[in-house]
Structures are given as C-alpha cells and as structure tokens.
Amino acid sequence: MKPKIYVDGEHGTTGLQIHKRLNDRTDIDLLTIAMDDRHDREKRSQLLNEADVAILCLPDDAAREAVAMISNPSTRVIDTSSAHRTASGWVYGFAELEKGRSDLIAEATRVSNPGCYSSGAIALVRPLTAAKILPADHPVTINAVSGYSGGGKQLIAKMEDEKNPDHIDAPHFLYATTLKHKHIPEIQKHGLLERKPLFSPSVGHFARGMMVQFPIHLDTLPDAPDANSIYTVLADHYAGQQVVQVVSPEAAGQIERVFPTSLNDTDRMDLYVFSSEDGRLVNLVAVMDNLGKGASGAAVQNLDLMLSTV
Is 0.90 surpassed by the pTM of this model? Predict the structure, then answer.
C-alpha cells in the first residue's frame, strides 16, 4: 500500500513547489484539496488524519493549529513554517547538519523544515562551532540576499505586477532593519551559538536564488586559524554526501563573482571560503536555490528520508 501524503497549504508558494515535485511520483498516493476548500477545517482535518505524512506549508499560527488538529498517532508531520524549528520534540530537518542527522529525520514523527536563510547560515556556522574553532560566544554577523519568491505570493505580486499599488521596482532592498527576524532563533540554536547573531537579510529583483555570507576576522578567533584550516573543517564536516559541497580553495581563488542564482533549479548548496591576500580575513559564502535546498527541495528530501522507514 502506497504511503499517503497531504500538503496542507498546497496552493501557496512553497506548497505549489512541493506539490509539483510530488505530483508525478508513482510511489506515493498524493492527497489533494480543492482551492475553494483550502480553508475548510473539517476537510483539512480529515486529510491531515488520513495522511501517513502531512507537509505543512502554512503561516506559523496556522501550522500550530494544523498540528493540534491531528489526532491520528500514525500521521507524521513535516512543518515548513518557523513554528517548530526550535521546539522540543521536533527534529530539525537539515540532513547534513551532523553525522546521524538523516537517521534521526528518517525515524521522526515530527520534523521541522529549516528556513532558507537559516540553511545557508547554519551550514557555514555549525561546523566551526562544533569543531571549537568558532567560540559559541563569538559576535557573528550574517548578510544574505534572496530571490523574492521567498516572500510568498504577496511579495511576488508586489515585485512582478506593475499595476499593484505597492509595486516595488527597486533592483534590491534591505529589510528587517530593526535587526529582528524569525530565522534568528534557529540560527542561534542550531548554529550552537550562545550570543544572538546579527542577521541582515535583503531581497533582489530576481525570483529565485540565495546567497548567505559570514565574514570573519580570523585573528579574533582562538589560535588565529588560517583560511585552509577553515576550509578543512567545512570539507571534513560535509564529506560523504552530495548535497552540500565545499568548493576547493584552488577553485574559489579563481572566482571573481558569485551569483545567488547559480544553483537555481537544483537542490544543492555550495559553500565557498574566500580569503584576503594576507590570509587574515575570510568570507564564508553559501549559495542555493531558496526554493530548492532552501524550502521545497529540503522538504522532499526529508519526506524521502521518512518514507525510507515505511
């Protein structure tokens, strides 16, 4: 019997992407709800409890409400919102986070899908804190730019529809100017940071793609490691898998420009270690498709891990 999968919120940006990825698969039974019934609590509850795995593509409060609607103990959940990313009892669904993480996801009943910005930030920070190269109380600054699809249907309409009264025609804009962002708690927790990171996100006038940057003065770290040491820690951490790839120092040294759109339509993430000529400064960079490894691709990756135990 094929496992039943229900995407609650299938008509939103992330939900549409996930549904598109699953629609032609023959190894699952994809449950669906009509557009007009997407707010019907009774019909949603029925599908949530019928599913073997429910994927929630909802705002935070709606995701919490959906979880509360599940009474079937056999229904497993992947939540793509930020509602449960630091919650007790939920497995953080970044399979490459640490050795054994994919096994935890495979066995879990509740999985929180990482945020797109968070995936890039944690991918850069976590190996360094885990290896004790980066102190947990180090003042970490993270800068990022995303394609506007990460903002959902409302932002997409503002960016693409010139007749929209709130149309944005700027090529790039900064936001979260009060230095608050919903991804900060998960970056801090899963990055193993004691001090809240300073996170500065922005949006470019392109639909998909993402670049996250973590610059470091190496002489502020214990023992003042060099760029090769940083590369080695990252490369060792991600050895043995094909999703997160660390670009070699030789290849990185030949790169003059990095584009946030370079991995669009893939579920990969590439990490770079760029260093100054004197080796005292590095800029760690993560590139991915914000709808690939940053959202829907990660959710399907987690789903496949969970289905491997069915």
Answer: yes
